[in-house]
Structures are given as C-alpha cells and as structure tokens.
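Researcher: Let's try something more involved. This one mixes different molecule types, so please make sure each is placed in the same coordinate frame as the others.
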Amino acid sequence: MSPRRWAALAALAYGGGTMMSEAAPQPTEAPCAAAERHLVKTEDGATIALHRHPGEGPPVLIVHGISSNHRCWDLSPERSVATALVAAGFDPWLLDLRGHGDALTDAEGRRQWGGWTMDDYGLRDVPAAVDYVLERTGAARVGYVGHSLGGMIGAVYASSAPGAQDKLYALIAVGSPLDFSDPDPLVSGALGLARWSLPVVPTDQLAKVQAAMGGRATPINAMVDAALLNDVSPELRPMMYRAITSPMTGGELRQLGAAAQEGGFVDAQGLVDYRGPLAKVTVPTLVIAGRADQIAPVDRVMAFYTAVGAPERRLVIAGRATGFAVDYGHLDLTLGDHAATEIFPLIAEWLRR
Amino acid sequence: MGMLLALFGAVAFAAPTPTLTDAGRARPDARPAMLVVTPGVSPAAYSVWVDAVEGAGLDAWLLTFPGVTWTVDDAVAGLKSAFSTLSGGREVPVIAAHGYAGVLVLLSAVEPAALALVGTPLGPQPVPVLTRPPVGGAALGLPWAPELLGPLAVEPTSGELGRAYAAWAVSLPDYAPPRCPSLVVSSGIDPVAPPEVVRLPSQSWPDRRWVRVGMLGLDPKELSHSELLSDPDLAAEVAAFLRAP
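Model: All components are placed in one shared frame. Result:
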C-alpha cells in the first residue's frame, strides 16, 4: 500500500475528538414525529419499534440501514418517504430494529446491547414487524422498502423466512449491496478490524462529534460527508447526524466482515449466500442504486437485481447520466435535497403496481 | 480509362491509416508503450500519460487516428498494423488506453506484454444512459454532454465512430479477454465506464487487477472521465503497472 494510502487510512482512524468546536448551527428544518409508536416483541424476546403515519391505503414497512434508525427515512416532513407515501395513498410503518432508535431499549426500559446478527434482523425483527402490521391493519400483504442493510435484511426475510413471500406485495431495496467480491481497500481494511469489534460500537456518539463540527471543513468530517452524502444541504447535516444515527453491533460488523471475505452476503454461520435463495423470490422487486454511493456502489447493488428471481423487477441508477438531477450518495437516496421529487415517486409508483 | 477509374477509386476509398508517433524522448532500447488515443480526443490530452510512461523507463508512442473517415473496422485494422510495426525488432510493447480507445484495443485482439485500460467500458450499461449519438459524417469529441465527462480536449472524428461509441453503451461487440496482465481502472462518477461495466465483465479475465479510484480505494479523489486521463497520480500508477505487471 502506498504511503499516501496509509496516510488516508490513518486519517480515517484518527478520532475527531481533537477537532471539537463550539455548538453546531441550529437545524433549519422541523424534526418529524409519527402519529403512532408501537413497541413489539420478537419471538426471541427482543423489542422493535414501529412508527406509523396512518394512511388510507395498503401498508408499507420501511426499514433503515446499519447504524441508523427510522429517522433516516423520516427526517422532517419535507424529507420523509412516510409523508410522500401517505400522500400517495399508502399506510407507512417505519421500523426501528432492535438496538436502534426507539428500540435502543426494550419495552421494559432495559438497554438492548447487542449479541445478535443481521440474520436476527431478517428472520426475527422483520417477521415480527410484518405480522404486527398485517394484524393491526387487516391487510393480507405489506410492501417492503429497505435502505442499505434494510434492503439486505429484506432479502433475508423474503428468501428465507417461512411464508414471507405470501405476505409481501412489493420489495424495494435502496442502496443495498449484496456483492462483496473484489473487496475495495477501504472496506477490507475496516471490516478486517471487525473481528476485534466491541459488542457495541458507539457510532451514535461519534455522530454527535460529527454534528458538533457543524459545517467546519475539517479532514474528518469532510471524509465522512464524502462517504455518505453528495446532495444534502450543509446546514442540515448536524441535525441529520444527531437524528439518524444509532450504535452498531459487533455481530453486524463480523457478518459484514465475513461477507467481504466470502464475496457475498452470507449468513452468520457462513453457510448460506443469500443471493442464492433470492432466486426463489418472485415478489415484484425494485432495486435503486446511487451513482455516487460510496457505501453501496452500483456494481455491488446490482447483485440484488441480478439475483432476485422475480419476473417483474427493475434496476434504477440514480445519477446525472441516467436523467437525475445529481449523482446520488448513500444517504441522498433517503433524505437528500432531491429525494422527495426523484426517489420517493419511484418508490410510490412501484408500490402501486 | 478503366485503370484511371480504378486508381481513383482506390485513392478515394482507401482506408485511413493511423499515425504512430514517438512521444517524449527517443528510447530505442526501452520497451515500447503504445498509448492509444481515442478518436475524438486530442492527443494533447495524453501529455500526462506520456510523461508518466517515460518516467517509468518505457518508450512512449502515441497512436492517433486523424481525420473524420474512420470506421470501427478501419480503426481496429490500423491498430493491429501499428502494433505489429512497433513490435518489430523490440520487446513486446505494452499498451495503455483511456475510454473508448480501450474497446478498439480489445477488438484488435493484439497481445501486448501488459495492458492498462482506464475508463474503458468492458460491457454494456445495465440501464439506459444519456448518450448523444452524432448525426452526420463528422462528430466533435465524445457522444456525451461535456459536463458529464469533465473538461476534455476534443477534436473532430467520424460520425460513424461517435455513433459506435454511443451504441456500445447498449451492446458491446464480442471480444476475447486479454491473456496478458491487465489493469482495469474505473471511477464511480464516470458515465462512460462506471464500475458495473468494468469490474463485473472483467472478473473472468485470467490475469486482471481491478482498481476503483476514489474513497473506497483509499484515495479521496473522485475522478471524472477526463480526470482519469489527466490525473498524474493515476498516470504514475498505470505506468508503474506497465513497467512491472
């Protein structure tokens, strides 16, 4: 590895603590609040949280990504897929997976510290959420929209949870990678450390540091921004980081580390590559990739599209060369400045099919 | 009269020939490095590559396709002929190509000692993209809106080549994977050759090294299509690969 690349890796690893500044600028958009919050127990006793924006039409389950929570899809009324879907005639339910957002603690108020894997999300949390939504709404099927890890566990659920396909009318994966072959040096380096991961990685606290730096052009926050964003107004970013970030767990990181080694998204035991079972999924599937997505590059998201067996499927690459206003980064897809006008309509249209 | 007509026809319809120029210093004892200039791009845009290749101890030669009468077949034939000429009495040349020139190299099926393809599409795009196929006999530059490629010094080329470039986004002609050590480089923001049309199609190549420029490759720079040609750090990496694959 060249000296320049070692320096870049060192800069990444270097904490932002020495770069603390005074209080960040105030957020410029109103925070979002769902009308209803539901705490639900999974079959193994964990707690998840569902946030419902009641609508008149078919229910839709909306799932966040790694180290995030439901606010990544519902940052403010202007940046909310929930708002958009209610207007489009749907009944959106936003999920906080165990250990995230309002499910940081369980129903009894005890902190949910970790000890689970991405399989648990797809095979326990999502089934609990789906069954709860169907029971409460009386609907026969639910639509599924997942961002990043949220789409990956959608693949787990749809392909491997008993009876899942009969409960879904649409599957939408946004910025969700399934191909980890030819690992990129940054990902290899980061996930190579996963084997020594703490049970819980306090990324939410690191996000507060990032938020505190506000709009200051420091190397660290510039790098974090570049990794995640291409189209989010700078004045919004402090509020965004504070709102949407939740801790990561060692189990997630180890499973992603295994994915980087195996070249594909494998289960926690390393026995099943979920791309294989996806071939059995016949639910109409929309896959959206961001042209400038550094976390889930297009070539890694494409595997979702090529793996799924649904005869009705579509791949969208959100970038200027394909007719979009900007080249979308990872978080731009859910809360970028153009998401409401360009991404959410695609989601609504697919759910309507 | 018949002979005159035949001669006129031969002159009028003769295939164009590319120009092979010894760029940089004459270094007859060094391994030749053929830098294939994309028809439609100015040879001046390759100065960084020339410097890098010469700096790596190779003998840089620029292969250009002047004029506006080129077809794909003519360009491929010219490239084969030029490679054969450059190979005469010397070490087997290495080849570097940026963008669509790389497709011409693959179609020629020449066998260099090493091959570097930077921003070259190796397969069709998975979704429709906004190319601008030229209309008419001549075209200026590449069939894309300039703001999507970054500042690139361009020149006229044939309309037929420009339309071929645009068509390659939908369907790339068949080619045999190169057997030599091959470096394939792609940038996530390059509409001509994003990673999904570079990394994935080349996974089956027998001896391929894949580089994604940008943050994931531990380099903070995101390079546009034109910057893939003008970035000195990348040029040095390409030259180093060609020097010792």
